[in-house]
Design a protein that fits this description.
Radius of gyration of chain A: 43 Å
Largest interface: A-C, 116 and 95 residues
Mean pLDDT of chain A: 85
Low-confidence stretches of chain A: 925-942
Helix content of chain C: 55-70%
Order of helices and strands of chain C: HHH
Structural class of chain A: mainly alpha
Number of strands of chain C: 0
Helix content of chain A: over 70%
Distance between the termini of chain C: 41 Å
Distance between the termini of chain A: 94 Å
Largest sheet of chain A: 2 strands, antiparallel
Strand order of the largest sheet of chain A: 1-2
Number of strands of chain A: 6
Oligomer: heterotrimer
Chains: A mainly alpha (about 950), B mainly alpha (about 400), C mainly alpha (about 110)
Number of helices of chain C: 3
Largest sheet of chain C: none
Shape of chain C: elongated
Structural class of chain C: mainly alpha
């Protein structure tokens, strides 16, 4: 039977409860419980091989790129944990079937349980470290769901969040550790890693690897100081606690330590870390268990304490100590699951878990009392229960250890303290619930009594096991522990004997002392709790929440600091990055100027350059006097178009000129609606910074430009020059490039224009703009809105301009000109009508929908491009021919002309769409409610 | 027809957009239907392209029948096919969501949405640097329009920052283009890469300057430290379906970076600087975005920071300059883009059910569908955090391992 | 000549950048216009500075590089579209935010960093 079936079965099992939930609680429970029982049977089918110390494994390649295989194994260690996960798991499912109230969503609950079970099985069966990590994280997620099952309760949410945060962080550390292991070993396959123990221990990264792995294990197994999440996970429904905190989740960390023992263990660093953490956890947990008043709280802290005990045993690092650790894992799971279950029963019956309000239940609930008594005795380490055996072994090993040299006696001493406390809190639990007189009973709806069979039988079974293992350890436990020990220690696995009676020796005396001490502590419990009230009690959730709040506050502070909402800062950062990066490139240039000789400067060019520079600087300096700034800008713009003529780019000059006119109209409109005099600038430091930034970036750009201008470059342009006429049918190479060689660019460009029009449409949606009544000095705008001269001139110009644009359009393919320029000229001529006559007058006479015009332009351009498909050529392939047209003579007709027509229409439509739209939203009314702006209020007063 | 396959992802949204815009005032239901059908067709088409690209031959389409490097070419390889497919799938989700009513809050939503897709697909497919600039402008302008869809103070304020920064970015883009054309004499990316490889050292420094400037421009779009500050407020204020679509916008920057990094500048001395910029910038982004997630006081802002987290992760992946980094990167990219998109949509749904509190992270009234929305959000969050059983865990693993093998750790 | 040309580009872009950083939408519009003049001049000059040699076949013996010119033409038109959008956005922003500061705040911008 392939191993894959085992986790697959439980995974499919997550669906079983969801599908059967409607068939009633009993059916659903039974159907769900069958799954782990079957899986257990599958696992046990490998028993013969395992008992011989063998290993069963199976490999499926999954993501080879990652080194992630679906590799599973079953060995002794897997068997031990698998038994606990599946065996106790199925018992708890049965128990939960009775525990959950009828209104509870049992389908969801069982589904989460099965998911969690799958994840745990995955961890213990994984034969690949990455796979192990995946399942490890899955347990965090599944436990989050389980602990937060009662999501309407805030303590449940908080507990779940805390558990997820702590174990999730640990999971990240573990991943890092695993990756480092993989780096060192060259493989993530467990057999390779386990075989490379010596290599790993000698690696320079060993301390880091170990620290990361331990971080993962300690957070999961609630070792001090990462223990604090565990008691708060008790907000979960009790079956969850019984499962997660007896046999599964918290044992995952211990499993990892045992699993990686051959690879990472056996160094003094390892031993010392584990011993220290284990000791601290053992004593700390036991002390707080003694002080707790909540039944589940006692169990939670005692779990912490016992986990510490196991870690301590692993840290003592002798073959027999490891055997004892494995044995105690089994024992702890048995008695702790029982105790949690009986805590659930008591809670269920009496409605409280506060031991001050419980008592004298022995006569009312004899069965529950019996099983609690048995499991409690096991936890206290009383003979003849199983807990006694493993505690004896611990005491023996603690006495025998040679760690810490001269301070070695601290270990047995602290272990003794832990054992004493353990006796005390176990007895206290049993005594207070069942035997002490109860002065303050909760008001229960009915007298507490023993629950239905289904609820106590699982616990009773486990309690009996505690006793039986104690009585017949060699038959019941030894083979299992022996195979597990072989899996962990290989050839070092010792032969051992579990026995109740070793004769009178020091460990026995210590046990005796612990029992007597425990009884004394219980007797003097009042004094102890008053002593404890003097000591500071750490309030874990408050501390955790405080830490989280502080973290969030710090994050907020950092974020607001960085992201202060200032565009000026973001721009400065962008420009600084650009400056730094280009300067970096420029700095590698040996000489700035290249080998091409400079051309002489002529006077006219110098004049133009001076005008541009003065205009630019002037426009920057006068930025608060906006009209002046704008005039300076237009001066620069006009000179730029002259520059284009000067340097042989007539098409550009024409385009620049017409764009300049259109954008000036737009800018003047903008100026009209924006405040004309912004408030004064104050910070001179800021000005210095900006001047420096702008200046140095300008310098770098100029430097780059100069470096380029003085270098010879072979460009692809000769091809355009030689193919323009034969391939494109036009002598104006710039236009042929635009409509033919790179017509795709042009298509994109008119798309941008049209989009800009549409976007402004959206922006002006539902916007009403108010005309300011006067300018900044308070002079009212002229009453004559449409000057007569302009009206006349505009009317005369219109046909002329249209004619010119037709001419420019037609000659474009051979002479400077083309669709763009023609379109802009047409647009400006039409615009002039709007300016001269107003929006209402013009639009009533020119009923044109500009969006439609520009879209039609785009359509024509696209369809022209598509036309080439008919002839089997790629999109936008042009063709041209010479035709004899009557009267005109021999004429060249090119599809490019059609394309250019599309461009023309798109440009006309889009330009007017933007400008006319802005005009149309303006109302002639004066504003009634002004904005808070200073200038605006000034205007309002006039 | 199949020889024209490469231009379909550009023509399909283009024709749809033109049709929608021409129809103007037809009922919204018809507009929705057209837009959805067209986007669904795009998904199918991108599937065909993926199959087509799944070979070691790089497909070229010569627009205007001019040979590269003289004309503009479209290039289809596995990477561009993947990006087109990712965009289509994400867009389909967004358009369906928007068709529930968000599209009616302003004019021409569907037409502009299709133009946005046109811009994205063009940017992914083009093999020409200047043409890339043109498509960048299309997709930016479309994104401006979509961002402002529905209006409102916050959108205009955040949009203003976004627009201004990108306009400055466009100016820098042209400078970078000028430097690169001036130094190499070509615009076709593959040809440029070839010429750079042949170049003497004197001009190589100029190429370095251009390459690094281009890196800054693309980094602005990809939103990496110190150029990401515009993103959280912009994405958080955008209409939900638009924000979800924007999950792909940062990836355009990333894609452009990957393209120039591998195709154009791989032989240039600039590559060292680019890799380092991406690696350290990516890591710093990752860190600060993580802090931002913690600091978020609004669900949408939180998701926006999650987008930044993924950007940081992806950038550092790209900065490894290592082939295994790229493989891991793509895996993670697909996953993170779709999840981020879904989370934006989900945040909107959650906000709608919380009354006045909206998406702000404060106590508010109960939502109607706690199990459904909560469960979906949990799945999204688990996926984003890279926890099993979702694919994000594998992506995280892949990237970390790639970092390890690229000797970056 | 080349040096002068570069100088002009440097001054134009520096002035434009200075204006960009002024934090007012109008200054930004003007700054962007200046910057785009500079970058257009930059781009067109990458084909070299030619006198009396327009790229028209038959008009001159050694025509100027036509490709950068075509690119700049596209860039000018795109720039126009963008600045038109920006102008409308500025007007809208003033209407929505109440002033023309880019961050929608008034007064204290000089003191914040």
């Amino acid at each position: 039977m392939p191993l894959l079936w085992i986790p697959l079965l439980t995974l499919v099992g997550t669906l079983v409860p969801l599908l059967t939930a409607s068939r009633g609680r009993l059916f659903c429970t039974a159907a769900t419980a069958i799954v782990p029982i079957t899986a257990l049977a599958l696992l046990l089918s490998h028993l013969p091989i395992l008992l011989d110390g063998g290993t069963v494994s199976q490999q499926l390649s999954w993501i080879p790129l990652l080194g992630l295989d679906l590799a599973l194994r079953v060995d002794g260690l897997t068997l031990l944990f698998g038994l606990l996960i599946l065996g106790i798991g199925s018992l708890i499912i049965i128990y939960a079937g009775y525990y959950l109230s009828s209104s509870e969503n049992d389908g969801r609950f069982f589904s989460y349980m099965m998911l969690f079970m799958t994840a745990m099985l995955g961890i213990v069966m994984a034969d690949n470290l990455l796979l192990l990590w995946l399942f490890w994280e899955l347990t965090s997620v599944a436990s989050f769901l389980l602990i937060g099952f009662w999501g309407h309760r805030s303590d449940a949410r908080r507990g779940a969040r805390m558990a997820l945060t702590v174990t999730g962080a640990g999971g990240l550390a573990l991943l890092a550790g695993i990756l480092l292991i993989g780096h060192e070993v060259g493989s993530f396959a467990l057999p390779d890693v386990l075989a490379a123990g010596d290599q790993l221990r000698q690696a320079s990264t060993y301390p880091v690897i170990m620290a990361l792995v331990l971080l993962g294990a300690f957070t999961k197994s609630a070792q001090f100081p990462f223990h604090f999440w565990l008691p708060h996970a008790m907000a979960a429904p009790t079956p969850v606690s019984a499962y997660l905190h007896s046999s599964t989740m918290v044992k995952a960390g211990i499993f990892l330590l045992a699993r990686l023992h051959p690879a990472l263990g056996d160094t003094s660093l390892w031993s010392i870390s584990l011993t220290l953490a284990g000791l601290a956890t053992l004593v700390y947990g036991a002390w707080f268990a003694l002080l707790e008043r909540d039944l589940k709280g006692i169990l939670a802290f005692s779990t912490v304490s016992h986990l510490g005990l196991v870690v301590l045993l692993l840290g003592l690092n002798t073959p027999l100590a490891i055997v004892a650790a494995l044995f105690h894992i089994l024992n702890h799971a048995l008695f702790k699951a029982t105790l949690f279950m009986s805590a659930g029963i008591i809670d269920h019956e009496t409605g409280t878990r506060d031991i001050r309000r419980l008592g004298a239940l022995w006569s009312l609930m004899p069965i529950t009392g019996t099983l609690t008594l048995m499991a409690g005795a096991a936890m206290a380490g009383l003979p003849p229960f199983n807990g006694f055996l493993s505690k004896e072994m611990l005491l023996t090993k603690a006495l025998a250890t040679d760690l810490f040299g001269g301070l070695g006696s601290v270990i047995p001493l602290l272990v003794l303290v832990g054992a004493t406390l353990s006796v005390a809190y176990s007895l206290r639990l049993v005594y207070c619930v069942f035997f002490s007189p109860n002065d303050n009973p909760p008001e229960a709806a009915h007298t507490p009594h023993d629950p239905p069979k289904g609820m106590y039988l699982p616990g009773l079974m486990l309690a009996c096991l505690c006793l039986l293992v104690g009585l017949f350890p060699m038959t019941l436990a030894a083979p299992l522990i022996r195979t597990a020990s072989i899996a962990v220690q290989g050839d070092n696995a010792p032969l051992f004997v579990f026995a109740l009676w070793h004769g009178i020796n020091l460990p026995l005396l210590m046990s005796l002392f612990a029992i007597l001490g425990g009884i004394t502590l219980l007797w003097r419990h009042k004094n102890i709790s008053s002593l404890a009230s003097l000591l500071p009690a750490p309030n874990a959730p408050a501390l955790f929440e405080k830490a989280v709040t502080r973290l969030i506050k710090a994050s907020l502070w950092i974020t607001l600091r960085l992201e202060n909402g200032s565009l000026q800062r973001y721009q400065a950062l962008l420009l600084l990055s650009a400056l730094g990066m280009t300067a970096l490139g420029l700095s590698q240039l040996e000489t700035l100027s290249g080998n091409v000789a400079m051309q002489p400067i002529d006077g006219l060019t110098l004049l133009g350059a001076s005008v541009m520079m003065i205009g630019a600087i002037g426009s920057a300096l006068a930025h608060r006097w906006r009209l002046v700034s704008l005039l300076m800008l237009s001066m620069v713009g006009l000179t730029v178009s002259l520059t284009f003529i000067r340097f042989s780019a007539p098409d550009l000059a024409m385009t620049q000129l017409s764009v300049e006119v259109a954008s000036m109209i737009l800018l003047i409109l903008a100026l009209f609606f924006l405040p004309q005099r912004p408030p004064r600038w104050v910070s001179s430091r800021r000005i210095v910074r900006d001047v420096l930034l702008a200046g140095s970036l300008g310098l770098v750009i100029a430097g780059l430009n100069y470096a380029l201008l003085t270098r010879e470059v072979l460009s692809i342009s000769d091809y355009f020059l030689s193919n323009s006429v034969p391939g494109g049918g036009g002598t104006n190479v710039v236009n042929v490039i635009l409509v033919d060689f790179r017509g795709f660019d042009t298509l994109g460009e008119i798309t941008v224009l049209t989009l800009a029009g549409l976007a402004t449409y959206k922006l002006l949606n539902r916007l009403r703009l108010f005309k300011p009544s006067g300018n900044i000095e308070g002079i009212r705008w002229s009453r004559h809105r449409y000057p007569m001269i302009l009206e006349v001139v505009a009317q005369i110009i219109l046909p002329l301009a249209l004619l010119v644009s037709v001419y420019i359009f037609l000659r474009g393919h051979n002479q400077p000109g083309g669709g763009f320029i023609a379109g802009l000229i047409t647009a400006i001529a039409l615009l002039l009508q709007y300016i001269a006559r107003g929006y209402e007058w013009t639009s009533s006479r020119l009923p044109l929908s500009y969006p439609v015009i520009s879209v039609i332009g785009l359509v024509i351009a696209v369809l022209t491009g598509l036309g080439s498909w008919l002839f089997g050529y790629p999109f936008l392939t042009s063709s041209f021919g010479y035709f004899n047209i009557p009267l005109v003579g021999k004429t060249e007709l090119a599809t490019a002309l059609l394309f250019d027509l599309g461009v023309y229409l798109a440009v006309v439509g889009a330009t007017l769409m933007i400008l006319v739209n802005l005009g149309s939203v303006t109302t002639a009314h004066r504003p009634t409610l002004k904005t808070t702006e200073q200038t605006a209020s000034k205007e309002g007063n006039k | 027809m199949s020889q024209h396959l490469l231009v379909f992802p550009i023509l399909l949204p283009m024709l749809t957009a033109l049709g929608l815009l021409l129809m103007g005032q037809v009922p919204t239901t018809l507009q929705r239907r057209i837009s959805i059908i067209s986007t669904a067709l795009l998904v199918v088409l991108s599937g065909v392209l993926l199959v087509h690209a799944n070979s070691d031959i790089i497909n070229i389409y010569n627009l205007g029948n001019w040979q590269a490097p003289f004309g503009i070419v479209l290039v289809l390889d596995r990477l561009s096919a993947l990006m087109v497919a990712l965009t289509a799938v994400l867009a389909l989700g967004c358009i369906l969501f928007a068709s529930a009513g968000d599209d009616g809050r302003g004019s021409n939503f569907h037409g502009i949405f299709q133009l946005q897709l046109l811009g994205l697909n063009g940017a992914f497919l083009t093999g020409d640097l200047f043409n890339l600039f043109v498509f960048f402008e299309i997709l930016l302008l479309a994104s401006y329009a979509l961002l402002m869809h529905g209006g409102g103070k916050a959108r205009i304020g955040a949009g203003l920052h976004y627009v201004v920064l990108n306009l400055v970015g466009s100016a820098l883009f042209i400078i970078a283009l000028g430097i690169l054309y001036g130094a190499t004499g070509t615009l076709n990316m593959a040809d440029m890469g070839y010429r750079i490889a042949q170049m003497d050292e004197a001009n190589a420094a100029l190429v370095t300057a251009g390459a690094l400037l281009l890196t800054v421009v693309f980094s602005l779009k990809a939103a990496i430290l110190p150029l990401y500050f515009w993103l959280p407020s912009t994405y958080a204020s955008a209409p939900a379906p638009v924000a979800a679509l924007f999950a792909i916008m940062t990836k355009v920057g990333l894609y452009a970076l990957l393209r120039v990094q591998t195709l154009v500048f791989s032989e240039s001395p600039a590559i060292v600087y680019i890799d380092n910029w991406l690696w350290w910038g990516g890591l710093a982004t990752l860190l600060l975005a993580g802090i931002g997630v913690l600091a978020a006081r609004d669900l949408r802002t939180l998701v926006a920071y999650l987008v930044l987290v993924s950007v940081g992760t992806l950038m550092s992946g790209a900065g490894m300059g290592h082939i295994s980094g790229t493989g891991a990167l793509l895996y993670y990219l697909v996953h993170t883009t779709l999840i981020a998109g879904a989370l934006f949509l989900l945040a909107e749904l959650i906000g709608l059910q919380r009354g006045k509190a909206g998406t702000r992270l404060v106590r508010a009234r109960k939502i109607h569908q706690p199990a459904l929305l909560g469960g979906m959000f949990l799945v999204g969050a688990v996926a984003m955090a890279g926890l099993p059983p979702l694919a994000g865990a594998l992506g995280k693993l892949l990237l970390m391992q790639a970092a390890d093998s690229a000797q970056r750790l | 000549m080349e040096l002068l040309f570069s100088l002009v580009i440097g001054v134009l872009s520096a002035s434009g950048i200075y204006l960009l950083l002024r934090g007012r939408t109008f200054s930004i519009i003007v700054g962007l216009a200046l910057l785009s003049y500079a970058v257009n001049l930059f781009l067109v000059s990458t084909g070299g500075l030619h006198t009396h040699s327009a790229a028209v076949i038959g008009a001159s013996a050694a025509p100027a590089d036509p490709l950068p010119q075509a690119l700049v033409l596209t860039a000018i038109v795109i720039g126009f579209a963008m600045s038109a959008f920006m102008v409308i956005l500025a007007i809208r922003a003033r209407a929505e935010l109440g002033n023309d500061h880019v961050d929608g705040k008034q007064g204290e911008e000089g003191s914040t960093r």
